[in-house]
Amino acid sequence: MARKNLRFYIAIWMGRLARFAQRMLGMNATYFPGRLAIKLCPDFINRIDKPQTIIAVTGTNGKTTVCNMLIDILTENGYDLMNNRAGSNTNAGIATALLSYATIGGKAKKKLGILEIDERSSKLIYPYINPTYVVCTNLFRDSIQRNAHPEYIADIITSAIPKSTKMILNADDPISSRLAPENERVYFAIDKLESDLEAPQNIINDCRICPKCATKLKYHYSRYHHIGKVYCPACDFTSPTPEYLARVDMESGMMTMELHNKAEQFELVSNSVFNSYNQVTVTAVLTELGLTPSEIQKGFEKLSIVETRYSAAEARGVEIITHMAKGHNPIACSCVFDYAIHEPGKKEVILMPDDDINHLTTSENITWAYDADFEKLNHPDVLRVIVGGIRAEDYRLRLLIAGIPSEKIFTTKDEKDTPGLLELKETDKVFILHQLYKTKAAKVAKEDILKMLGEERTV
Amino acid sequence: MGKIVIEVLYPEVANLYGDLFNMKYLKQCFEVNPEVTVEWIEDELNGKPAFASRDDISVIYMGPMTEYSQELVIEKLLPYKDRINELIEKGQLFLMTGNAMEIFEERIECEDGRKIAGLGIFPLYAKRKMFQRYNSLLLGEMENMKIVGFKSQFTHTYGNNEQEYMIQTLRGDGIHPGSKLEGMRRNNFLGTYLLGPVLVLNPELTKYVMRLCGVESPKLAFEEETVKAYQIRLKEFEDEKTTLQ
Ligand SMILES: [Zn+2]
User: Fold this and answer.
1) Chain A: residue nearest B20 by CA?
2) How far apart are CA A432 and CA A385, in angstroms?
3) Nearest CA of chain A to the CA of B123: how many Å?
4) Residue A341 confidence (pLDDT)
5) Fewer beta carbons within 10 angstroms: which end of chain B, N or C?
6) pLDDT value for A457
7) Is the pLDDT of residue A59 over 70?
8) Average pLDDT for residues A344-371, to the nearest whole number?
9) Minimal Cα–Cα distance from B155 to chain A, Å?
10) Interface check B66 vs A, CB under 8 A
C-alpha cells in the first residue's frame, strides 16, 4: 500500500462530497464518487486503507447472489462488514465502496469486506486490494463483443491475483478451477446427481480438450456445458478433489456436506442445480472464515432470495411466468430454456430477445443465438413459440434450424402483439422469456394475458 | 447428384460464436435437395485429418478459436502444409471463418513481441492486441452477391491481399482498419474474419458454396425465411444511419 499524499486526501474528500451530494439528491452512490476519486488520484485504491480481511467474489454467473448471501449471513451472525452491494463491481465501484466505509482521513472503518469484482476489471483492482480470498463461482462464455471467450477472462484474472491470495474454486469447472495455479487453494463441488449425463449435450462447451495434452476430455459426470467431473483418457489430468463436496438432493431440498469430519445438513434455498452451486460456494467460504455449520444454517434459514428475475401469476388454471433470459449470454438463455421445458404441463413460450439499446444505433449482432440451445424448445410439450421484436425473423429462422415445426412458430415485430398470438387451449403454462431491456414489455404482456383470461389471481 | 462430404476441422476447439452452424445449416440445405446424401466428418486434434488421405471431400471448414488453440491447430496442421497447398491448387473448397484464416498466414505477432509462425500459405500476417477488442458490422460484395456479417476479434491482418481477397467492402473494414479488401481467397480457398453463422446470414453465399460442391441449382433449407431475414438485415446494413460498431 502506498503512502497517503495530498492528492489522495483531496480525492477522498471530493469523493465523499460527491457521495454526500448524490445522497442529498436521493441518488444511490454507485460508481461516480469512486470514479471522481480515481480521476483525482489514479492510484486511489492502492492508497486508501482496506479492511484486514477481504473476500473478493468473481465469476460469470452467480457472483451477485453469492455476495448477497455472504453479506446477509455474516451480518446475521454479528459480523460488521463493508461491501459494494449498493454500487458497481468495477474499479470505480470498489473505490466508491472503500471511500464510503472510510474515515475522512482514509482509515478503514470495517475489518471485513465482501466485494463483488467484475472479471474484466481484475487488473485494476486485485493488485491494490490484495484480497485474502478470491472466490470464483464459474467461468462461462458471455457476450462475445465484451468477453471474447472464458480462456481470455481466466488469463486476465490469473495475471492480476497476488501470490498471497487464497483461492476458493469450483472443482466442477475445469476452466475456473485452474485459475492462479501457483496460489494456495480449496475447492468446492456438487457430487454426481441423478440428472447428470455421460457426455455434454449443450452447443457450448468451452473445455473440450485436455489442457495438458489436447486429447478430448471424458466425463465421470457431465452436468451442463463444461461443468462436470472430467478426466483425460491419455494423461493424468483430472478435476481436482474438492475439500467441500456437497451431496445435493433436489427432491428433499437438502444438501449434505462433510465439515470437520461430520456430515452436516443444510436446507436448499433454490430448486435448481444451477443456483445450488451458489449455496455450496457460500458454505465453503463461510467455513473458511470460521463459521460453524449451525451459524451457516441459521443464516440460510433467514435468507429471503429476491427473485427479481422471475415472477408468476395464474388465471383460469393457466400459470404465466416471466423470466429474464439475459441477451447475448447464450448460457443464461440455455439455462432458462432448460428450466421452462422441465416444468410440468403443456407450454406456450413467448420470447422477447431483442437488445433495443443496440437497435437505436446499429444492427444487432445475433451470432450468440447460434450458441444458445434453442433446440431445447423443440419439445412435444411446447405448443407454440412466439417471438416479439425487431429481429423476430432472425429468431424464426433460428427456431426452424433447431427443428421446431413451422406451424408452431409465430413472430411479430412488436412485443405488445405477442399475447394475441397465444392459443391458450390446452395450455398449462405461458413462459415469457425476456431480455433485460424487455422487462417492462414482459410485464405488460403478462397483464394482457391475465386480462384475456378474464380472471385475475396473483400467486 | 451424389454424395457430399463435409469435413469440420477440430470442432472441439474451433467452435466459438455459433460458427458450427455454418456446416450444420449447410448440411440441412444439402438434404432438401433431391438425391443428395451427406457424409459428416469431424477431425480431432489428436488424429489425422480426413483430407490428408481422401480426395472426395466437398468442403473443408474451420471456425474461430481461442488464441491458445490457434497455436495448437498450427502445430497439428503443419505436417499437412504441402497437402493443403496441393488441394488449393486442385480447386478444393475450403471455408475459414473468424481467426481460423490466420492459421494460413505467415505469422501472428503478439503484443509482447512473440511471433507465432503460421502455415505461411498466404503472404499475410496478423497483429494481436488482447486489450483492443474490435467489433464491427461488414457489408461487402463478392461476385455480385451482397455479403453481410459481423466481426469480433483481437487481431487484424496485414500484408498485400489485393490479388487474393474474398470480399470487396462497401461499409466496414477489410482485413485491417482502412483496408477495403476483406479476407483471403485463392481458387476455392475462402477465408474471412466474418464470424458466427455466416452462411445462415447469407443465403446467396450458401448457394454459391453449394454450387462449388457440385449442386447445379441448389435449394436452401427454409429458403423463404432465410431470404426474408437476409433482406431485413441487408436494408439495415445499407442504411448510412446504421453505425458499424
Ligand atoms: Zn491429457
Assistant:
1) A370
2) 10
3) 27
4) 94
5) C
6) 45
7) yes
8) 89
9) 12
10) yes
How far is B49 from B72, CA to CA, in rounded Å?
14
Q: Is A421 on the interface with B (CB under 8 A)?
A: no
CA distance A108 to chain B (A): 33
- In this predicted model, what pLDDT tens digit does every residue of B202-223 receive, in sequence order? 999 999 999 999 999 999 999 9
Q: How many CB atoms lie within 10 A of CB A120?
A: 18
- Is the CB of residue A249 less than 8 Å from the CB of residue A193? no
What single-letter amino acid sits at B53? S
Instruction: List the A166-170 sheet strands across, edge first.
Output: A81-83, A112-116, A53-58, A133-136, A166-170, A185-190, A244-249, A254-259, A262-267
Predicted confidence at residue A418, as pLDDT, reads: 97
Q: What is the ipTM of this complex?
A: 0.96
Question: Strands B107-109 and B115-117, how do they pair?
Answer: antiparallel
Position A458: which residue type? T
Model confidence, pTM: 0.92
Say which range, A21-30, A261-270, A387-396, B51-60, has the weakest mean pLDDT.
A21-30
Of the two residues A312 and B33, the one the predictor is more confident about is B33
Interface contact B159, partner A, CB < 8 A? no
Q: What confidence tier does A455 reach under pLDDT thresholds 50, 70, 90?
A: low
- Best to test chain A binding among B8, B13, B15, B17 (most A CBs inside 10 Å): B17
pLDDT at A358: 64
CATH number attached to the domain at B2-238? 3.40.50.880
Q: How far is residue B69 from each of residues A199, B80, B193, measured CA to CA in Å?
A: 22, 17, 16
Distances (CA, A) of A315 to A321, A380, A383, A439, A441: 12, 23, 19, 21, 19
Q: Which residues of A touch B196 (CB under 8 A)?
A: 365-367, 370
Beta-bridged to residue B59, according to DSSP, are: B6, B93
CATH fold label, A54-84+120-300: UDP-N-acetylmuramoyl-L-alanine:D-glutamate ligase (3.40.1190)
B244 contacts in chain A (CB < 8 Å): 362
Question: Smallest Cβ distance to A367: which of B45, B197, B221?
Answer: B197
Distance (Å) of CA B6 to CA A327, A371, B42, B69, B234: 31, 21, 8, 22, 28
A40 reaches B (C-beta below 8 A): no
CA distance A275 to A262: 24
Cβ-defined contact of B24 to A394 (cutoff 8 Å):
no
Task: Name, in order, each residue with C-beta under 8 angstroms of A77's C-beta and a sequence gap of 6 or more.
Answer: A291, A295, A298, A299
- The dihedrals phi and psi of A297, each to the nearest 5 degrees, come to -60, -40
Superfamily classification of domain A310-453: Mur ligase, C-terminal domain (3.90.190.20)
Angle, alpha carbons B156-B157-B163 (nearest 5°)? 145
> B27 to chain A nearest CA, in Å?
11
Contacts of A393 by beta carbon, 8 Å cutoff, 6+ apart: A411, B225, B228, B229, B232
CA–CA distances in Å: residue A253 to residues A68, A248, A296, A305, B215: 21, 8, 16, 15, 57
Q: Is A371 on the interface with B (CB under 8 A)?
A: yes
Run of H or E including A364: none
Comparing A335 with B98, the larger pLDDT belongs to: B98
pLDDT digits 0-9 by tens, B182-195: 999 999 999 999 99
Domain boundaries, chain B: 2-238
Confidence of residue A458 (pLDDT cuts 50, 70, 90): very low
Q: What is the pLDDT of residues A114-146, one digit of tens each?
A: 999 999 999 999 999 999 999 999 999 988 888
Tens digits of per-residue pLDDT, B156-174? 999 999 999 999 999 999 9
Q: In a mutagenesis test of the A interface, which of B10, B46, B198 is the best target, namely the one with the most A β-carbons within 10 Å?
A: B46
Phi, psi of B182 (to 5 degrees): -100, 135
